[in-house]
UniProtKB/TrEMBL annotation:
Keyword Cell membrane appears in the UniProt entry: no
Designated name of the protein: Inositol phosphorylceramide synthase
Pfam family, any one: PAP2_3
Topology within the bilayer: Multi-pass membrane protein
PANTHER family: PA-PHOSPHATASE RELATED-FAMILY PROTEIN DDB_G0268928, PTHR31310
Record's keyword annotation contains Iron: no
Family annotation (SUPFAM superfamilies): Acid phosphatase/Vanadium-dependent haloperoxidase
Length: 312
């Protein structure tokens, strides 16, 4: 059986991407959720697909980032599939495993004892955590033409997919919700909240976090913490670069993990679950790429310019 030619592969890829972008835009239009980001993302997808070999090479690697945005943005469509929403049980388990002074849990204790330096430090970490992924993926791996670009993008998609599946199977209220509404039956009318990050907004007189969380379609998506998952994944992805990178990425991952609890967005249990999700996604994607390289050694050994590393 002859393999499909590169030109034919390109044609199939271009039309597949165009179909998916068109289908996604039709979905958000039909469900009345169109925002400028949808128009920009779907249009960019089609433009990159048809703009030539260079942009298409970028798109082949970055396509999982678009898929990630699509599944996160579409969570509201799946809320009817959720299981029983957990409000007080995680609080009780957290209290048993990680008690704080005064019979409280740590998110509650920090809510009652905030301070401005930590508000600013943790607010910065919560604002920057996502950019770490994109800076590493786009500015470092892609422009170095390192094959880790594609594997990082797929690992990012997989960890988010794990998170969304768990949000459906085990919907859980964040600590700020329990502090505001109590541990009783879930209030499905509850609005998303910036929680502790509102203090960061107030300090600078901005509404960055207020606007960010206003778009959250799922109040009961706290377990696992994807905020904690992303920086830990970057520790794993950049581990090979040596001690300085390891120390820097570990410190940032710890800061984001602490911020998730300090800002009352997550329990320590959520943070630990996010770490497990990151490790599972990284190991799974790495194994798939290793098997693909073994099956297609000509792909793994291709020479890339600028000293690019060809290993996944």
């Amino acid at each position: 059986m002859t393999s499909r030619s590169p030109d034919k592969n390109d044609t199939v890829f271009k039309w597949l991407v165009t179909l998916m972008a068109t289908g996604h835009f039709a979905l958000v239009a039909i469900t009345g959720r169109v925002r400028w980001e949808h128009v920009a993302a779907d249009l960019l997808l089609v433009v990159l697909a048809w703009a030539g070999a260079g942009p298409r090479r970028f798109l082949r690697g970055a396509f999982p980032l678009w898929l990630t945005g699509m599944i996160l943005d579409s969570q509201a469509l799946w809320l009817g599939l959720r299981g029983t929403i957990h409000t007080g049980d995680l609080w009780d388990l957290e209290k048993a495993l990680f008690p704080a002074p005064g019979g409280m849990i740590w998110p509650q204790w920090w809510w009652n004892n905030p301070n401005t330096p930590l508000d600013l430090l943790c607010g910065f970490a919560y604002a920057a955590y996502l950019y770490e992924v994109f800076i590493a993926a786009l500015l470092y791996f892609f422009f170095k033409q390192d094959r880790r670009f594609e594997s990082l993008c797929w690992a990012f998609f997989v960890v988010n997919a794990i998170g969304v599946v768990i949000y459906v199977l085990y919907p859980a209220a964040p600590p700020w919700y329990v502090l505001k509404y109590g541990p009783g039956p879930a209030n499905l009318a509850a609005l998303p909240s910036p929680a502790g990050t509102a203090r960061f907004d107030a300090f600078f007189g901005i509404s960055y976090f207020a606007n960010f969380y206003a778009r959250n379609p799922n109040v009961f998506g706290a377990m696992p913490s994807l905020h904690a998952a992303y920086p830990l994944m970057m520790v794993l992805v950049l581990w090979y670069k040596g001690v300085a990178w390891r120390v820097g990425t570990i410190l940032f991952a710890l800061l984001v993990a602490f911020s998730a609890v300090y800002l009352t967005h997550h329990y320590i249990l959520d943070v630990l679950a996010g770490g497990i999700a990151a490790v599972v996604a990284f190991v799974a994607v790495r194994a798939v790429f290793a098997r693909r390289d073994k099956a297609s050694p000509e792909v793994a050994s291709v020479s890339l310019p600028s000293g690019g590393n060809t290993r996944a």
